[in-house]
Amino acid sequence: QVQLVDSGGGLVQAGGSLRLSCAASGRTFSSYAMGWFRQAPGKEREFVAAISWSGGNPIYADSVKGRFTISRDNAKNTVYLQMNSLKPEDTAVYYCACTPRGISTSRYEYGYWGQGTQVTVSS
């Protein structure tokens, strides 16, 4: 079992930055691929970024590529999402998730989820 706790959301002006964190419990964290997803009101949960268990080969949604960076620290059981040049359309609840199946963009591959953290970007 893995438990995930998201944090770091908030209100920021367009062009600003935030760093989200996801703290995991469980001894197998380092063997799980990690992902970030987001869900805006009235929309489906969508993929944002993912990273393999080793920290290599991160992948990003086209909408955030070049602005967001995913990273992980296995010694701290934590994954991060650095978000720069934020836009109003980035406003959503952000969720971290993990999977033992390997890096994926599909939310259906992720079996464990954080509770979500709200990110609001004002124009």
Inertia-based shape: globular
Spatial gap, N to C terminus: 40 Å
Strand content: over 45%
Q: How would a crystallographer describe the biggest sheet?
A: 7 strands, mixed
The average pLDDT is 95
Individual helix count? 0
In short:
The chain has 123 residues and is mainly beta.
Model description:
The chain is mainly β. 0% of the residues lie in helices and 49% in strands. The chain is built from no helices and eleven strands. It has strands at residues 3-7, 10-13, 18-25, 33-39, 46-51, 59-60, 68-73, 78-83, 92-99, 112-113, 117-122. The strands form two sheets. Strands 2, 4, 5, 6, 9, 10 and 11 form a seven-stranded mixed sheet that branches. It has a four-stranded antiparallel sheet with strand order 1-3-8-7, with no helix packed on it. A hairpin with a 6-residue loop joins strand 4 and strand 5 (46-51).
Blueprint of the fold:
Elements: E1 3-7, E2 10-13, E3 18-25, E4 33-39, E5 46-51, E6 59-60, E7 68-73, E8 78-83, E9 92-99, E10 112-113, E11 117-122
Parallel strand pairs: 2-11
Antiparallel strand pairs: 1-3, 3-8, 4-5, 4-9, 5-6, 7-8, 9-10, 9-11
Short key terms for the protein model shown above:
123 residues; mainly beta; seven-stranded mixed beta sheet; four-stranded antiparallel beta sheet; 11 strands; 0% helix
